[in-house]
Amino acid sequence: MSDQVTKKVGITETVLRDAHQSLIATRMPIEEMLPILDKMDKVGYHAIECWGGATFDACLRFLKEDPWERLRKLRKGLPNSKLQMLFRGQNILGYNHYADDVVEEFVKRSIGNGIDIIRIFDCLNDIRNLKTAANAVKACKQENPNAHAQIALCYTLGDAYTLEYWEKLAHDVEELGADSLCIKDMAGLLLPQAGYDLVKALKRGTKLPIEIHTHYTSGMGSMTYLKCIEAGADIIDTASTPLALGTSQPSTDVMVKALQGTPFDTGLDMDKVIEISDYFTPYREECIKSGLMSTKVLGVNVNTLKYQVPGGMLSNLISQLHQAGKDDKLTEVLEEVPRVRKDFGEPPLVTPSSQIVGTQAVMNVIMGERYKMVPKESHKLVAGEFGVTVKPMDPEVVKKVLKPGETQMTDRPADHIAPQMDDFRKKTAELVENPTPEDVLDYALFPQVATDFFAYRKAQKTGVDVNAADKENKAYPV
Fold first, then answer.
1. Can you tell me the distance from the alpha carbon of 69 to that of 64, in angstroms, rounded to the nearest whole number?
2. What are 283-320's pLDDT values in tens digits?
3. Most buried pick, 18, 72, 209, 218, via CB within 10 A?
4. Distance CA 345, CA 67 (A)
């Protein structure tokens, strides 16, 4: 690498979000994070990814934490660091499209509560589904000059995904007004040389800073990062060693050390980086001991490159088959996934398209007949309710899935959704006395989960558990 131009590489640390989402189903509580924030704040990361993705749902559903309160605590504990979140475009953090007014409000409140960089992606790389969120970030720049819209393109393989495709997309992302571009390789499919060629193509399409995000699932991550850096990548996503590798990201410690003394030196203090790892090591051991972290997700599996199945999707498939008593059908399902994906226009496999394709593959195998049973999410994807796929869908499959007389939607799906915020405000006011704007957004994204959380929160304040009440006789245990 000595013949390369000197260029400091930025590190986005993922230990507070994607690392634990990938390895322990997003179950790290805020109490585990707070003691180390002061030291993390002094490392000098490009950014700390700490919110969004599945953290919002997991906080409300499993950890009984207010996700907004978590964000405020992180902001307070990391005053000198840029905080980053993951945002699913028009889906926000849920699984369906929302009206533009909900997207705009969520962006505004996220930045207002402490987020700087919003990484926005769409499961189909449909630029139309990224526009509202990107514009909403721009609108926040006056109040928060650090507000930064990063567009993430979901990396995948297939005939349509040529270097020309990525180059054009990079150009479109810049036209959209993004501040930076990220390649989001959720399944660890990006090989080292392909990564080099991809970054070169992106650089031809845009002058924006380029960040690379991968998972170690296939064992390629660190090598891919080195080649991407040689090609001109500006930032890489890594995880503190105890929560790195396997289905998580390459190790921060390893990448910082590998780049030390090269033209791409990150400039991070190795001793400080190791201090962060030392802090999380006992937590990792605890997670393994309790079974929260399965050793199955810690290895590498080159078969990932064959089936293109991200780690979270694989565990979903295994769980669905187990519930149906068909554990022996996993290989059949893994072979069916690429066929369903092709039928559905070759979408990248990332939330929610990964769940849709995976569930349909499971149904096809269990039923013994393809598309005999079609879940409503498959129907939505085929009907165009998530946007346009890179290739046309199989006409025979479209005919099977759509109802008679129904046609595929070709315009932007959110154009068909009327404003929703007023309705969500009314419904939340029925559940919470003087709801905050953040309460309304909790309800908008996860109505049932938020309803349960509101009841739990009230019980904590009053000592009365409404869920355990004998409502008929108005008896409330304290």
1. 11
2. 999 999 999 998 878 888 887 887 777 766 777 788 88
3. 18
4. 35
What's phi and psi for 298, nearest 5 deg? -95, -15
The 10s digit of each residue's pLDDT in 431-457 is: 999 999 999 999 999 999 999 999 999
Burial of 312-326, coded b for 16+ CB within 10 Å and e otherwise, reads bbbbbbeebbeeeee
| Cα dihedral sign, 396-398-400-405 | negative
Pick from 445, 447, 458, 448: nearest CA to 88:
445
Contacts of 395 (CB under 8 A, 6+ apart): none
State the virtual CA torsion across 317, 318, 319, 323 in degrees, nearest 10.
100
Count of CB atoms situated within 10 Å of the CB of 183: 22
Q: List pLDDT tens digits, range 329-347.
A: 999 999 999 999 999 999 9
Torsion sign across C-alpha atoms 52, 134, 251, 167: positive
DSSP E strands in 53-169: the ranges are: 83-87, 117-121, 148-154
| DSSP calls for 226-251 | HHHHHHT--EEEEB-GGG-STTSPPB
Q: Which of 11, 78, 19 is nearest to 268 (CA)?
A: 11
At how many degrees (to 10) do helices 311-323 and 330-343 cross? 120
150 near 181, Cβ under 8 Å? Answer: yes
Q: Which tokens sit at 318?
A: 């295994």
* CB contact set of 188 (below 8 Å; sequence gap of 6+): 214, 215, 216, 217, 218, 219, 220, 221, 304, 310
Contact between 71 and 106 (Cβ < 8 Å): no
Query: Which of 274, 279, 229, 285 lies closest to 251, judged by CA?
Result: 274
* Euclidean distance between CA atoms 209 and 47, whole angstroms: 14
Report the DSSP beta bridge partners of residue 30.
none
Residue 445 in tokens: 């994204």
pTM of this structure = 0.93
What's phi and psi for 152, nearest 5 deg? -105, 130
Burial class (CB in 10 A: 0-12, 13-18, 19+), 422: exposed
Describe the crossing of helices 131-139 and 100-112 by its angle, rounded to 10 degrees.
40
| Closest listed residue to residue 198, CA positions, set 239, 153, 237, 241 | 153
